Amino acid sequence: MTDKGKKSQDKHPKSPDAGPSQRYEDDNLLASRVVSADAGLPSPEHVEELRRQIESLNATIQAEQEKVAAYWDRLLRKEADLQNLQKRMQEEVEKTRKFAIDKFALELLEVQDSLEHGLNFAKNGQVEAQHLLEGMNMTHRILMNALEKQGIQIINPEGEAFNPAFHEAISVQETNDVPPNQVLAVVQKGYTLNNRLLRPARVVVSRAPAS
Questions:
Q1: Strand-strand pairing, 201-207 and 167-174
Q2: How confident is the model at residue 60 (pLDDT cuts 50, 70, 90)?
Q3: Which pLDDT belongs to residue 107?
Q4: Which of 58, 53, 32 has the alpha carbon at shortest distance from 42?
Q5: Is 0.85 surpassed by the pTM of this model?
Q6: Local structure of residue 188 (DSSP, 8 states)
């Protein structure tokens, strides 16, 4: 056998008839490969720690979900309460609007009674001019009291400066007796409701004579 053939046999001694020493080396090589393959797996302690962390996160998520559900339920209840409150307020507004003039209507009925009383006397011929005037004055006082209780005030600006916010000039009269832009006469009284204009007073306003 040549030296080249011997070297080739020494380099690849993997025949089935290899000795115990060779088999021992092969087993060590296989074991090292198994250890290398298992080196990337976590240890049991690491796995247990990961399991505990996952359980803790799940418990936290569950607790937060329960809080969200509780807050959502509370929000829905508040929304329902708000809707009920708005409904009750609307009903109260409607009721107030419908029956707000109850007292005023009762006071106006006193005016009606006074007028009917005077008319009945007049029909029966049992009233004189003086009595009629007294009855009308009394009825007028009743009406004025009823209006004042509702915040209705008379605008009677005779002798005052003309105010376009509350007065309506229906005529202008030249005169030297009063300064210009004064109310000479009130043709029709105006009225305010709680300081808000209901109807302007219709007036005659002064103006300086043309030269």
A1: parallel
A2: very high
A3: 85
A4: 53
A5: no
A6: E
